[in-house]
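Is zinc ion placement plausible here? Inputs below.
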Amino acid sequence: MLKLIPFVVIAFSCIARLSASDLLLVEDGHARAEIVVAAERPRMTTLAALEMRHFVQKLSGAKLPIVTTPSKTDAIKIYIGRSPATDRLGIADEGLKYGAYRIASGPNWLVLLGHDEDFDHTKMPWPLKRNAVPEEEAKWLQATAGQTDAAWGYPFNSGFKSLWSPGDFKEQMTARYGDDFSALWSKRPGSPEGFWEHDLGGSSNAVYALLRSWGVRWYMPGEVGEVVPTKKTLVVQPINKTIRPDYAMRDWNWYNFSGFAYDDVIWARRLGMNTGHDLVGPLKGPHGMVHVMSAPAMKEKHTDYYALIGGKRDIDHRRGGTPCFTAPGLEKETVQFLRYLFDTYDVPSVDVWPCDGLQLCQCEKCQGKNASDLVWGFADRVARQIHSSHPTKRVTCGAYTSYRAPPPSIDKLSPNLAVWISNCGRPLMLDDVHWKGYQELMNGWRARVAPGNILRLENNRYHIFGDGPIGYPVIHPRSAARDLKAMKGISLGDTGEQSQAQSKWRTPAIEHITLYVESQFLWNADQDVDTLLDEYCRLFYGPAAKAMYDAIHFAEHNLAVKDQSRNGGRANPMNVPLTVSLRLREKLEQAQQLAGDTIYGRRIAAIQADLKSKEQLIADDQQQRQALADARAKAPVARAHAGDDLSTATKYILKDNTTGEKSDVTTQFRVGWAGEAIVFEVVCSEPRMKQLQVAQNVFDGDNIAISLETPLHSYYHLEINPDGIVADGNPGPDWQSLAEVKTERGDDFWRVRVRIPVVTADEASSDPRHRIGGAKPTAEAPWYFNVGRYRVVDLDKPELQAFSPTKRGWHQPARFGKLLAE
Ligand SMILES: [Zn+2]
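Reply from A.M.:
I modeled the complex. Tokens:
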């Protein structure tokens, strides 16, 4: 924390020890200072002054006056924000970007200053309320009418969600800050009541730094999350410091900022979070490309901008349609759209990240191309044209899902093109294999992107699903710290969705631990995470400090790493064994007992209340086991033929994966047990062989899938395309089957023969990242498995077939069939 407490502040109980140059702000509960702000000032300067007064009173009992004209008394002047007085002192906010601040003192004065600025919504067709959206959208359509021969989607439609202005704004704030609130909170004509999440508030960061130096902490939203010691006397020693954050962008994505409680909103500001508004502006994405394509007139006039999927142009996907990245008209249209936004609203940056759930276009020019090459090739061409006309402006796009890896065919991206590197499994950064993959990804991007153009988007939505208690919490302060330490000077900062529902943080008693550490590392990435957590536990849990430190460490180090599913590209770190979940409950119970019925105990109780009880965990686990046993009692059975030669082996036919009915286009397989290998031969009838889709990444095109669960391992998974390319996992990445594959194509079929090596338990445990660990399947120790086919050809919707239908995707081990060997 050294960087955040750059000066030494000592509370004296004995005034005799005060040196002549020290500033005595409060003496034994009596105010010896006044807060001075400019008569005309941004909202956030007022808020900074109010917060200063509020916490000085909580610390010492003294209430400092807030004035706009310094009194003639010898009271120490605390100048907050820019004012005529700070101008006279020559202390300016120039160069204090992204929330940076200065703290300076002199004889009888202290300056707490950063760049404060009101967000100006009037520059844009920006709705102040939900019901103002149609009117503002109409203004947008009118203003842009001559700019395109069709129409553009309205990019400011959710702007009103960024305004914090509840109906009882004044009452809430008066109750909190005092009767003079309304007089101090001078509202400018034309601006709404309340404040914007985009309001810049550098001066408050200076105020919070000073308060932290007196021991104040904000670990969690609300009073229960505050630590405020009693200090009757408050002193500042001579100081002159400028503090800059290590990361410019420090954003949590609030789905609806305007609906959150003030406790939540102010908590983020106290931790120095921002929205990155001065860096990337209001059009930072994600999925900014949607606005180019979402207007009905565009779909009608330029169907060629939209991806060819199953023989039709997809104009409907998620209301915006799917882009065809090689359509020359779409590129031109996008450049025009961006130029209009830069010229008209002077925004610093515009996003061209495509729609969520992107499918690849099957037109002649797009077909067979790598997803990253398509998406990033397009973004790069657009960015280069913007660079030639608007060299100071930035274009952003996301490295996400199928286009998360850097584009193989591009060596250097346009110098103004920034990448949001998204969802890299931050909770798992302590796992060295995971970390290595992340570093490789990052290095690939660093080689292509100009310095200063890497941003991180990391969703932290692990607790968002359902509204009941949580099985295992995803607490990951050390993983977050490792990421932020390594990315300092490389990434501009963080954004991401947090676990929230109905404008409330979900389980703040759990989430705050990671969020607090993240916020502190965004300011100072060089600090020691153990020191930070040690202080947190000491101040927040009192007598249970050591027990809680241990519980948090345990929770993070036992997150599930290996048993992740590739389904949807997301790992599930909560998927831990029952014993681990129970052990965490025990640790929390021990901590609770040490803390007793105190504020510390109440904080631990809040964590426990968000977690499922032991009884519930055990009951859920039993139910799952029973459901699995029931499903497996009904599982279809296949028998592996003895040996490699499958010519006389039994043929099994796949069924429709959803209905369980016979498929019109048949797929059959045979399986053999050859001792040190298991052998499959899969024959896919295909009347439309010419339309066969062969994707380099295997998943997106025609392929067959084999899942194998052995008594030694949850399951292994392979997908193989008609060219014999294999994508494998166990089921997550970092495992290779080392299978031998042969493929063959006929006039109306394609065939795969795959021989997968099988090793003993000893060998599998010494080298768990290669081959299959298991012994010959028997009635006592069967394997469970599935064979599936993903049939794409030119179908509107790909067809899925399986030996044991799962109704959903492949990663459904409870629905696997049973495998025995002859
Ligand atoms: Zn295309």
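Short version: The radius of gyration is 30 Å.
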